[in-house]
Amino acid sequence: MFKQMREDIATIRDRDPAARSGFEVWALYNGYKALRSHRRAGWFLRHGFHFLARWESQRCVRRTGIEIHPAATIGKRFFIDHGTGVVIGETTEIGDDCTIYQGVTLGGTGKDHGKRHPTLGNHVMVGAGAKVLGPIHIGNNVRIAAGAVVLTDIPDNCTAVGIPAKVVRKDGEKVPELDQIHIPDPVAQELRRLEERITALENQKQ
Questions:
Q1: What confidence tens digit (pLDDT) does each residue in 112-130 have?
Q2: Whole-model pTM?
Q3: Among 7, 143, 163, 191, which is 20 to 30 Å from 26 by CA?
């Protein structure tokens, strides 16, 4: 337990330049407190104390403004920066070395049953206010911009922005955007080809 606490504190100090000491993180950081509370709630849930598990998670909401369902699966070195307004649903799965910011929702759409919430790979960053909804998969090394709404899978090594979110970078390279104005008209192109063919045949007869 103490090894895990030290790792959690070291993770926050490494990623947050405002963290001045381990004691400050332990005493004041809501993201750290929420993670500790989630582990207690998870222990209660695994041992059949369902009411106590939910009681612990709701107590955490009142103390920190962060709601994590006791059944959510969270990997190592997870960091919730600031944290107010974060919601993590029951069937969410989060890999190792992930970071999420305030106002993030890892939630459901209300249309699914069973697996209803997203799965995040390793080294995922979710910006402030972003919403990742439904049983979708977010790959490794993905960055989701602040305010984005993600409704579909995102492959590895991508950056996604917008509502609904779309991939704008992959493997460090900018993804070409579709020109919505100057889209080639396939019908016009075919008519032009036929016109050229007719002209050529008429020239042959002459």
A1: 888 999 999 999 999 999 9
A2: 0.78
A3: 143
* Distance of alpha carbon 174 from the chain centroid: 20
98 in Cβ contact with 84 (< 8 Å):
no
β-sheet with 79-80: strand ranges across? 79-80, 99-100, 125-126, 143-144, 158-161, 166-170, 173-174
Cβ–Cβ under 8 Å, residues 157 and 142: yes
Helix (H, G, I), strand (E, B) or coil at 66: coil
Angle at the Cα of 95 from the Cα atoms of 155 and 48, rounded to 5 degrees: 135
- In this structure, the number of other CB atoms found within 10 A of the CB of residue 25 comes to 21
82 contacts 64 by C-beta, under 8 angstroms: no
Gap between the Cα atoms of 34 and 57, Å rounded: 8
Tell me how far apart the alpha carbons of residues 31 and 201 are, in angstroms, rounded to a whole number. Answer: 75
The Cα 196–Cα 178 span in angstroms is 29
Contact of 105 with 131, CB cutoff 8 Å? yes
Among residues 169, 102, 95, 80, the alpha carbon closest in space to that of 139 is found at 95
